[in-house]
Amino acid sequence: MTDFSVETVVIGAGVVGLAIARELSSKNKEVLILETEDDFGKITSSRNSGVIHAGIYYPKNSLKSKFCVLGNRLLYDYCKKNHIPYLNTKKLLVASSLDQIKIIDQIKNQAENNGVEGIKKISKTEASNLEPLICCEEALLVSSSGIVDVVSLMRSLEGRIQDSGSMIAYKSEIKKINFDGNKFLLKVMNDSETTIECKKLVNSAGLFASNVANTIEELKKEFIPKTYYAKGNYFSVSKNLGIRHLIYPIPEGFGLGIHLTLELDHSI
């Protein structure tokens, strides 16, 4: 027996889930967001540096490159229209040794192929003029990078979703999902067990997306990606060093390397 029926269910009220739900609901689609926590963005979305990335690293025509380049522009536009605090700080990608200069050239070419605007290779003197504390051989200036107040962004998205008549159900844990070829049936536990029917289902559960996918009995396990976890650490600097740009090393291996990001008050 179905307790509730809706056109689309979005699982996860992080920034991705909220953005998807906001876009759907703005087009008069009936949307319900299900979130395990008691508020939005409590896992990953509130535990990041809030960088607005430019899309310089990803392979041409990949979804990451397309979404990042377009999303960069759309996010700045949304922040301006909805009074979300942000800063277009720009980013310096620095070559700390002579043998890294060729990698700077490769990344610049990749960025230009991806359609990233405002990319400029600068000398060590030009980099030092921008940031006197930098010691490098050359750098790449990425003009479209910046930072955003992620919590304010999510709060705005939540408000737009609710204003459109869609709903967000917090403290709602997915227990089981079935698909009969036409619709999804979700067993959800909040105060009591509820059965929800929907035609479309969006899995934006972040770190737990694979777990959610595994609850869909009809989905073959070989189609469910394995989740690989990584832990990062943040350190803050109490002294005001006058840094005005995001500063990143040449990426190596698994991640982007140890990088310096700013808060909206320019603290590190």
TrEMBL record:
Belongs to the L2HGDH family. GO terms for molecular function: (S)-2-hydroxyglutarate dehydrogenase activity. InterPro entries: FAD-dep_OxRdtase, FAD/NAD-bd_sf. PANTHER family: L-2-HYDROXYGLUTARATE DEHYDROGENASE, MITOCHONDRIAL. Residues 8-266 form the FAD dependent oxidoreductase domain. Its cofactor is FAD. It holds the Pfam family DAO. Keywords: FAD, Flavoprotein, Oxidoreductase. Coiled coil: none annotated. It comes from marine metagenome. This is FAD dependent oxidoreductase domain-containing protein.
